[in-house]
Design a protein that fits this description.
Number of domains: 2
GO molecular function: transmembrane transporter activity
Distance between the termini: 32 Å
Function: Part of the binding-protein-dependent transport system for D-xylose. Probably responsible for the translocation of the substrate across the membrane.
Largest sheet: 2 strands, antiparallel
Order of helices and strands: HHHHHHHHHEEHHHHHHHHH
Membrane topology: Multi-pass membrane protein
Radius of gyration: 22 Å
Keywords: Cell inner membrane, Cell membrane, Membrane, Sugar transport, Transmembrane, Transmembrane helix, Transport
Protein name: Xylose transport system permease protein XylH
Structural class: mainly alpha
Strand content: under 5%
Length: 398
């Protein structure tokens, strides 16, 4: 390989590569620094195995909603209704199970379908009538909150323990223990680490085969080692927890893999980026923008249905007040994770990092007994700083 070809395929110097991906690495570094700070400030309580499990379970709804929100924002829209949709669909799920004698697995499937119908309703107004998504989803926020109050009224409790285990339970320990470690967690962690390594190697080989730019080899190695180490440490924590591998983490993991593939490897994903980057150019290129916008909101509704099931299972009951400020959590996680305010830029994995930052802040501030009003102030400042950094980074790159 010639020097010119090597420079092209390996993306130039390490410093140049890091500069071009500054935002991504700053967010990861911020997550690490915040976590270590609270670990120190709480005398080691932050990363106790059971606390890590609680962090995952308590913030699962943010992980799920922010996946769909990233896609919406990348395309140049916003969705303010997801919290109300969670309350509405979660309320209907509780009613189906407790009052309408629907088996809970069927109720879960129907909840996702109802969420998709809600998304189709909103997507119709955005895509085919041309009403801005901000207005449509603002109306949806009021509409579906009202319907949640109408249908649910009071709390619908007494949900089956198997249903509640979706959010609160762990996978059964079919394989016993390795010393004090839950073997199921160890096996899943090992598979995840191997999958990450294989995926990164295949991606790099594909880029090299097509003579496309890749990161310098040292950056590739460091990224792989750090990723595998992070999975290993999380696996160790979960394997030492009281229950082992949380069921909800498996659900979130599958969704992250699925939607990362959709955004990075499908025509639909490329069309989303094209619309957010330059809508007129996308239309001239033949992108069916109305169809894409419609499907985006159907997808957001379905993910809100999944989040509704998890939220209802987590609480063990359906309440009309569920989902308060969920839309703000999802939007904040997306922006903190590097999704551009102007659209066209954003990754599912980045949004998950943003959601983790929000979750670590929530738990760390609670453990340290910071009053709720100051928790809101701190999270608001973090959001502003993250967006400001994104804007300044873009200006620096021009």
């Amino acid at each position: 390989m010639s020097t010119a070809t090597k420079t092209k395929t390996e993306g130039g110097s390490l410093a140049g590569y890091l500069g071009g991906n500054l935002k991504q690495y700053v967010m990861v570094a911020a997550l690490v620094v915040i976590t270590l700070w609270f670990q120190f400030d709480t005398n080691g309580l932050m990363l106790l195995p059971n606390n890590v499990v609680s962090l995952i379970q308590q913030n699962a709804y943010v992980f799920i909603l922010t996946i769909g929100m990233v896609m919406i924002i990348v395309a140049g829209h916003i969705d303010l209704s997801v919290g109300s949709v969670v309350a509405f669909v979660g309320g209907l799920t509780g009613l189906m199970v407790m009052q309408w004698d629907v088996a809970w697995p069927v109720a879960v499937l129907l909840a996702i379908i109802i969420g998709g119908i809600v998304g189709a309703w909103q997507g119709f107004w955005v895509a085919y009538v041309g009403i801005p998504a901000f207005i449509v989803t603002l109306g949806g926020m009021l509409l579906f909150r009202g319907l949640a109050i109408y249908f649910v009224g009071t709390t619908v409790g007494g949900l089956p323990s198997d249903f509640n285990a979706l959010a609160n339970g762990a996978l059964p320990n079919w394989l016993g223990f390795l010393g004090n470690l839950d073997t199921v967690s160890v096996v899943i962690g090992a598979v995840a680490a191997l999958g990450l390594l294989i995926s990164q190697i295949r991606t790099r080989r594909e880029l090299v085969r097509n003579d496309l730019r890749t990161e310098p080899f040292i950056a590739f190695v460091v990224k792989a080692v750090v990723g595998i180490a992070a999975i290993g440490y999380l696996t160790w924590l979960l394997a030492n927890s009281a229950g082992g591998m949380p069921i909800v983490l498996i659900i979130v993991g599958v969704l992250v893999l699925l939607y990362s593939f959709i955004m990075n490897n499908t025509i639909f994903g490329r069309h989303i980026y094209a619309m957010g980057g330059n809508l007129p150019a996308a239309m001239l290129s033949g992108v069916k923008t109305k169809r894409v916008n419609f499907l985006l909101f159907v997808n957001m509704g379905m993910l809100a249905g999944v989040a509704a099931v998890i939220t209802t299972a987590r609480a063990g009951s359906a309440v009309a007040s569920a989902g308060q400020n969920y839309e703000l959590d999802a939007i904040a996680a997306a922006f903190i994770g590097g999704t551009a305010v102007t659209g066209g830029v954003g990754k599912v994995t980045g949004a998950i990092i943003g959601a983790l930052i929000m979750g670590v802040l929530n738990m760390g501030l609670s453990i340290t007994n910071v009053v709720p009003e100051w928790q809101m102030v701190i999270k608001g400042l973090v959001l502003i700083v993250a967006v400001a950094f994104d804007i300044l980074n873009k200006r620096r790159g021009k």
